[in-house]
Amino acid sequence: MVLDKFSLKGKVAIVTGSNTGLGMGISIALAQAGAKVMGVSRSPSDGTLKAIGENFSYMVEDLGSIEPVKRIIQKTVEKFGRVDILVNNAGIIKRQDAIDFSEEFWDDVLNTNLKTLFFLSQEAARQFIKQGEGGKIINIASMLSFQGGIRVPSYTSSKSAVRGLTMALANEWAKYNINVNAIAPGYMATNNTQALRADEKRNAEILARIPAGRWGTPEDLQGTAVFLASQASDYINGCTIAVDGGWLGR
Ligand code: NAP
Q1: Cα-to-centroid distance, 227 and ligand 1 (Å)
Q2: Are 186 and 242 in contact (CB under 8 A)?
Q3: Residues 206-220 pLDDT 10s
Q4: φ, ψ of residue 161 in degrees (nearest 5)
Q5: How many angstroms does the Cα of residue 73 sit away from the middle of ligand 1?
Q6: Strand order in 240-243's β-sheet?
């Protein structure tokens, strides 16, 4: 039955940025679909633990460097026995005019959004290959994987690179039955966009350009996340799926 292909029963997922926003929504969705989930964030993921219960565990790690990468895979295997799915969701944004943009804002964003995403994917892929049953990597991209944005040069660079890297890794790892894909969320109501939503002018401009006429929510990503984590998407490789209320098509 086709719906059985969406089940994540018996699967183990790692979700970065699991304590809030989109990562919390994705963790809940994967668990509802049957997976055991290891969350990773700088802050404790207690709200997510409360929402999911015993099929969720979390680690507190700073993904601003690649130091915790091997430990994350090891601890997940210790706790849940294996790893089948990695969702690279943790990400930050820094806003400043390009003319004044600091090296610190550049490095912070590129390290978290791109460098750690790559090395955590590499470590997960090594584990998938060792297990011999394939795996799923889902990167969280952005509208700025397709567009330039304003006052966010390091964020745009990181998210455009995430889209390219998603294709590059898919090309190398499809032969191991590892699917690497990305989700590009549109404008979603989370901490990440609090400043934009608080700016009346920008908020009105953004809403006027979204065909769906509203900001997205973490729930809006849940179906796509489960789909890309499941057997139902086994022949999808290197794809970045926009979940954006129509923003890109406008
Ligand atoms: P958010 O509410 O700000 O959450 C960001 C998450 O990333 C938090 O869990 C945060 O953990 C984690 N994180 C950031 N830096 C970290 C670090 N150094 N080490 C460990 N964890 C770290 O934002 P969100 O909107 O849910 O964003 C999730 C992803 O979606 C990001 O990659 C973002 O770029 C992307 N995205 C968001 C939107 C949107 O409109 N909201 C649109 C497109 C793409 P702590 O809270 O513990 O720091």
Answers
A1: 21
A2: yes
A3: 999 999 999 999 999
A4: -65, -35
A5: 20
A6: 56-60, 36-41, 12-16, 85-88, 135-140, 178-185, 240-243
Ligand 1 pocket, residue 58 CB under 6 Å:
no
Ligand 1: does its nearest atom lie under 6 Å from the Cβ of 17? Answer: yes
How remote is the CA of residue 127 from the centroid of ligand 1, in Å? 25
pLDDT of residue 209: 96
Q: What is the pTM of this model?
A: 0.98
What tens digit of pLDDT does each residue of 226-245 get?
999 999 999 999 999 999 99
Superfamily of domain 9-188+217-249: NAD(P)-binding Rossmann-like Domain (3.40.50.720)
Phi/psi of residue 19, nearest 5 degrees = -85, -15
Q: Could you tell me if the CB of 39 is within 6 A of ligand 1?
A: no
Residue with tokens 């706790």: 79
The domain locations on the chain are: 9-188+217-249
Residue nearest to atom 39 of ligand 1 (CA): 188
Confidence of residue 77 (pLDDT cuts 50, 70, 90): very high
Mean pLDDT within 163-184: 98
